[in-house]
Amino acid sequence: MLAGTIVCSVGTGLLVMLDVETSTVVWVVWMVIAGFGDGMCTNMPYTAIQAILPKAIGISIGNNILISQLLSEIPKHARMIPSQAVIEAGALNLDALTDSPGILRQLRQAYGEAISAVMICATVTICVSIVATSGMQRLNIVKISRDREATNHTHENTSPVGNVIEEEEK
To answer: Residue 129: left if φ>0, alpha if ψ -120 to 50, beta else—which one?
Structure first.
């Protein structure tokens, strides 16, 4: 678990460095590193956190960071295009907002900086989870299940209610 958390934090840390010039090969490798680490540790404290918090809390936080960053970054890069139009168009439809390659590049730069802010939040969260992961008790779920079944079986056989029913049937 700890190794997965560390690998995942490195991968998301690399994703913070994404920009318009990042080649496809580079960002794919960074995503694979982040995904590999996430896959090694996904079912650890996140399961406990999801039991306490609403299911989509992480998505909601990321979405709020993205939108607030877009609202602040778009005017810095492309004042002539309203921020709300860019948000409604989404990252894949930026070219529908302008014919100018220069403005399109600026819009992509603004989007890249907004996404970097989301990745920074994710990286910080994962790095903080390293501390939580280090302190988690290691449990064998199969052993716990067997122990519970044995305990339940023992209680069923020694239940005073069960003995009364058996005596009444005789």
So the answer is: alpha
Q: Return d(Cα 164, Cα 166) in angstroms, integer.
A: 5
* Cα–Cα separations (whole angstroms), residue 117 to 64, 71, 95, 156: 11, 13, 23, 56
Mean pLDDT of 84-111: 91
Condensed to tens digits (0 to 9), the pLDDT of residues 78-88 reads 889 999 999 99
Contacts of 120 (CB under 8 A, 6+ apart): 16
Average pLDDT of the chain to the nearest whole number: 79
Name the pTM for this structure.
0.57
Distance CA 73, CA 79 (A): 10
In the chain, DSSP finds a helix count (H) and a strand count (E) of: 8, 0
Burial of 46 (0-12, 13-18, 19+ CB in 10 A): middle
